[in-house]
Amino acid sequence: MGYFLYYFTVVASFFLILVISLSISSFLYLLSEVCEEYPFKVKYIIQNIFIVLLILHVLLLADDFSRIYSRIFLSLICLCLYYISFQKYPFIKIISLESMLSAIAFILSNITWFNYFSSNIYDFNFFQIVGFMLIIVWYYLIPSLIYSFTYLFFLQGSYRCYYLYH
Prior knowledge:
By secondary structure, the protein is mainly alpha-helical. The chain has one domain. The protein has helices spanning 3-37, 39-63, 65-85, 97-119, 126-137, 141-165. α1 crosses α2, α1 (3-37) packs parallel to α6 and α2 runs antiparallel to α3 (65-85).
């Protein structure tokens, strides 16, 4: 491979990462706008996604129980903690025991899955790892960001109503 082709692919890779990052941030912004407009429909959708994720975890557990059962159980605990904290959506408490425990479980889940894929680096390619992490592990991050935007929206609205009428 020539030098030009090598450096061109490196620059193109950085450009691709930039485009993907901007796309993800635009998607999260659009998602937060939808959450502001239709919070109870979003709650219904999120609850159905939790059911799909639970089924995916059970399928992963049945597929390769001997190698990844502790990681799947940690992901299931994380999923249950998030489900508990989503029960009162769109009215949430960011600083609560459930939110703190789910954040800790999220970090632990990231660390354990990263260690698993680091030790089995030749069994999976980059896109398989990112796809798995996005659906099974990082899914928890998207509702948390939506929580933050929705919480700020409701906090601003309730403060404005309190200020105008009291």
